[in-house]
Amino acid sequence: MLNDSPSGDTFPNGYRFAVHQRYSLDNSWRRPKKGNVLIAGSPLRIFRLSTAGQAIAESLEQNGEAPSSGQLLITRLIDAGALHPLPSLEADTPTVHDISIVIPLFARSENDISRVQNFVAEFSAFPHVVVVDDASPIAFPEMPNTNVTVHRQEVNKGPGAARNAGLTFVSTPYVVFIDSDVQCAPEDICELAKWWNLPQLAVLAPRVKSLKWFQFGAAISPYGATISAYEEVRSPLDMGAFPARVRAGTRVSYVPSALLLCSVSALAAVGNFDESLRTGEDVDLIWRLDAAGYSCRYEPSVEVHHLPRTTIQQLAEQRIGYGESAALLAQKHHGALAPLRVSGWSTGVWASIALGFPIIGGVVAAGTAVALSRKLRFLPDAEKESARLATLGHLHAGKQIASAVTRVWWPIAVLLALVSRRARWALCLAAFVPALSDWWTSRPHLDPVRYTLLRWVDDMSYGFGVWKGVVREGNYDALIPELSSWPSNMQQKTSTEA
Predict the structure, then answer these.
(1) Which of 393, 299, 388, 296 is nearest to 342 (CA)?
(2) Each residue's pLDDT tens digit, 302-317
(3) How far apart are CA 470 and CA 327, in angstroms?
(4) Rounded CA gap, 115 and 117, in Å?
(5) 83-116: per-residue pLDDT in tens?
(6) Radius of gyration of the chain from Cα atoms?
(7) Is 8 exposed, middle or buried (0-12, 13-18, 19+ CB in 10 A)?
(8) Would you give the DSSP letter of residue 355?
(9) Number of CB atoms found within 10 A of residue 453's CB
(10) Burial class of 312 by CB neighbour count within 10 A (0 to 12, 13 to 18, 19+)
């Protein structure tokens, strides 16, 4: 239990504290009956609050303010992903003079050259812009009498090596990596820098949305327009509309390197990007920084745009490349690439239903809720809250299982479907229900048929890449699920996190 002793300005329950920072609550935040139990974060955690902690929680809920004297609780809530800091006028955030720009480039055409030339010209206010030409077929020209340095690699070594090469020219404390196919303005970087207000912060990433088809400067094929509409709602670079602490196994487990604001010293402390990784180097960097005790954050209030793929082949090749990186990442980060993380109880519920025993599945689900209510007797309306948590947990697990079946395990699922009618039904449900549910929720500018077909291409391409990578590397960790017994885990989090 956290026993904070706030002081300063008067807030609810008679406690006084000085306000220095404002915060936003995570969308998972829930405090039943405004009592001493808080349920929030990713993964979901339970905090038991002291009387002072309740005062802090009430202040956060009412006006997003908290005292500096309650920093222990605030820090734990931020680390759990339950609370997110807002920009503070008092914070000493990076300015344009503290930030250099590094742009890795592999130019395939004169259009690529022209686009990047026009792009870097907009960043004349920054002290230094470094364009790293990664042995492009068409060399990027020098830009004399500007703040731009052009460094050409003689051998193509991949984006991680290109970013590391660019870092050798950086003398400012902060650097922004920008991919050459990203559209952003200097104002976007200045706005993002306002959110740099946490100690040990190493990486800050904006939301990367796919460019809409009608925003293209040139004509686009019908296939390109369809893919663009699909990626508006299902781009692998778009981490969603809610801020997050970035960590493996959470709602936002990584952020793409399309645009990253980074601390140069933090990068150096972990050895910068791993040049042995041609893809997944951004994921690896985030996880190494997190393991080293640094903070990595995602802030979707700042948006930049990325050029989408324009053909089915390009989309499939991109997803295959992402999948191939899974085996190498699994070797470096054991367990972080599990295609499925659910409780054994939820697995039992859905396995019973899939095998044709829905009553048994219902009994297991009910039994889980009862067991959970005994673990969480301290909750207000323990039975009701436990039933709610258990139901949401099982529904989330069902979605995750369906995703694993159609995304990573689809070769096995297809083989089983060839010999089992029940497996065919299960595969069809896993392929159609989540896709149509997402279509209904996101409402893309696509009919459900084309959306579902593109989702299948997306998922199956990624899964093919995973299998290709694990066979090549001889490491199958990226195929192995992680099962847990979440009632006992919930109890453990209750005692250690509150």
Answers:
(1) 393
(2) 999 998 888 899 999 9
(3) 5
(4) 6
(5) 999 987 766 889 999 999 999 999 988 988 999 9
(6) 24
(7) middle
(8) T
(9) 15
(10) middle
